[in-house]
Amino acid sequence: MSLHEECGVFGVYSPKPLNAAGLVYYGLYALQHRGQESCGIVVCDDGVFTSHKDLGLINDVFSEDVMKKFPYGNMAVGHVRYCTTGSANRSNCQPIEVNHQKGKLALAHNGNLTNAFELRSQLEMNGAIFHTTSDTEIIAYIVTQERIHTPSIEEAISRAMDKLDGAYSLIFMSSAKLIAARDPRGFRPLCYGVTSDGAYVVASESCALEAVGARFERDLLPGEIIAIDEDGIHFITGRRQKAKKTTCIFEYIYFARPDSVIDGVSVHRARMRAGEILASRRPAEADVVVGVPDSGLDAALGYAKASGINYGIGLIKNKYIGRTFISPGQEDRVNKVRIKLNPISETVKGKRVVLIDDSIVRGTTSRQIVSLLRDAGAKEIHMRVSAPPFLNPCYYGTDIDSKENLIACRYSTEEIAEIIGADSLGFLPPEELGELIGTEEFCSACFSGTYPTAIPKQTNKDRFEAKLSERKNN
Predict the structure, then answer these.
(1) Catalytic residue, candidates 7, 83, 191, 394
(2) Cα–Cα distance for residue pair 386/271, rounded to 1 Å
(3) Is 409 considered catalytic here?
(4) Which of 89, 214, 267, 474 could be cross-linked to 193 through a Cys-Cys bond (beta carbons 3.0 to 4.6 Å apart)?
(5) Is there a contact between 34 and 8 (Cβ–Cβ < 8 Å)?
């Protein structure tokens, strides 16, 4: 079992009409690593919304014929999704579109609300009818309710944020404005930039800005809202500094692309630093350091640099297959590991190998990778992990909602090494996490069990489906 990705959001506002769908298409391509189950684009052309959403990858969903159907417009918003709340079906594809008394709204969301179940129950008791099982629709409902009583969409969003708990980076598109918001703790990344043509671009990661030729301006601050319209960009900071900043540390370890910069910290550099710390705190006598593609490669470079052991390319990734977590069943997942990764015998045969990966969740994937290297002739395999052991559920967007599948909750480090077939195993010490990014302003609850918000009462990943099923049975 590998960790499930977050989601990726992308939006553009231009003073003049342009191929907005094309711009979002390339931006989402750069964010594909954040979600591989579904994707969608909504374009605004003089107040008229045109959308296309479906299950699948960007290049599967947005064929040339589909892209031709989008009009030129001055605004567009897009989304790539991996479900953490709500199942993978077409009704849950984003961006969500809403028609209400004061106009239209499209919304793309990255994150997970910790009070989603309570909010949804309250809305349903007041007559709300939900068409999806995603907590994003809850946000759309609350913002729409606030919009009826406020002078602007950005004020409605600001008021709605008082009711939302948990992680959310949001991009809204009305008929006249593009609005982006980051939750007061800054769990998930969100940044903006400007193209040479003067178009504003908002994205989950800076790598998506670069993909469309936009100049990075800065990250949105936790609790900040930006509104972009014909008069330019406006900053709303009334929700700033209402909570301690707790950016998800796993963005740096695994989720984000290595060429991204989040809150001023290079993801590549953070991963290199993790490898350096592992070399110091979890040394091994070996002949070669090998990284597991993709997020283990930077840490492997750092380990090799700090230890003086040669770095080698020991595993090749088949780039035409999705990540292992896409597989619906355990047997299929195991098969995909073998298809996805191929060992290079010349690098590892007869050698003592330090194998660097970003995490061990269930241990299945790690066991398969170790087996691949053994079959390729590796003499010894010393596995090192650039994260501490997972010991607790995450409620902020990562798809770990219970301890039952976490191998570190049931076995010691030595026992895990034996289970996965490694000669030794070492994790990044949790007390060293701050060294990766140079600050203690991060969330590491999945490792420490110390949560920055209240733990939700209803924690099942598909809790809304469970609620519907319970009603049908009563």
Answers:
(1) 7
(2) 8
(3) no
(4) 214
(5) yes
Q: Give the Cα separation of 340 and 322 in Å (integer).
A: 8
> Which residue type occupies 398?
T
Quote the CA–CA distance of 214 and 194 in Å, as a whole number. 5
pTM summary value:
0.91
218 residue type, one letter: R
Query: Element (H or E) spanning 248, and its range?
Result: strand 247-248
From 171, 177, 43, select the one nearest 52 (Cα to Cα): 43
Q: Which of 73, 63, 61, 11 is nearest to 37 (CA)?
A: 61
| 164-175 tens-digit pLDDT | 999 999 999 999
CB of 287 closer than 8 Å to CB of 309: yes
The pLDDT of residue 466 = 47
Burial 178-191 (b: 16+ CB within 10 A, else e): bbbbbbbbbbbbbb
In the block, residue with structure tokens 């990726």: 8
CA angle 25, 29, 31 (to 5 degrees): 115
> Could you tell me which CATH number the domain at 8-244 has?
3.60.20.10
Under CATH, which number does the domain 261-448 receive?
A: 3.40.50.2020
Q: Counting beta carbons within 10 angstroms of the beta carbon of residue 100, is it exposed (0 to 12), middle (13 to 18) or buried (19 or more)?
A: middle
Going from N- to C-terminal start, the domains of the chain cover: 8-244, 261-448
